[in-house]
Design brief:
The chain is mainly beta and 151 residues long. Helices cover 14% and strands 37% of the residues. The protein has one domain: Beta Barrel (M1 Pyruvate Kinase, Domain 3), CATH 2.40.33.20. Strands 1-6-5-9-8-7-11 form a seven-stranded mixed β-barrel. It has a three-stranded antiparallel beta sheet with strand order 4-3-10, with no helix packed on it. Strand 7 and strand 8 form a beta hairpin. The protein starts with a strand and ends in a 7-residue tail after the last strand.
């Protein structure tokens, strides 16, 4: 299944406002250049636009996807099936190592959002950078077949 990048965001300060980008450099062990410091295994967070829209419909809300605070918004990709696999974002490859669990900050954005994001990995996934490079809004996104190599 292939899709595309529909949004890119960095969060220069923890808890700070998102900064939209049309392109970003993705660095191994770091994540998106200019983003707050993240761990190597949680370097990049990815959210499905379709799952976000389902969540908003369930809540009767209309928040933009950056309210979830993910770095990369994708469309046309079954993110839950990417766990334990590689996700190619243009020329960048991520090893998807886990679910991005929603926290109490989501309820600050909208009452009930934390619980609404919990089922079905609606809150997105996170991963470590396997292949660094540049990504852009509109780049193709694809889940690579098979499990990732262990490091």
């Amino acid at each position: 299944m292939s899709g595309k990048i529909t949004g890119l965001f960095i969060y220069p300060e923890e808890g700070g406002a998102p900064v939209a980008r049309t392109a970003a450099r993705v660095l191994a062990g770091r994540g998106l250049e200019g983003d707050q410091r993240r761990t190597a295994h949680r370097a990049v967070t990815v959210l499905s636009l379709e799952q976000w829209q389902e969540t908003m419909a369930a809540l009767g809300a209309d928040l933009p996807p950056q309210a979830r605070r993910a770095n990369v918004i994708v469309s046309g990709v079954d993110l839950p099936s990417s766990l334990g696999k590689q996700l190619r974002l243009g020329d960048v490859v991520l090893e998807i190592v886990g679910e991005t669990r929603p926290c109490h900050v989501m309820d600050d954005a909208h009452a009930g959002l934390k619980d609404a994001l919990a089922p079905g990995l609606r809150a997105g996934v996170h991963g470590r950078v396997v292949t660094e490079g540049d990504i852009r809004v509109g780049d193709a996104v694809e889940i690579e077949a098979g499990a990732t190599a262990q490091s």
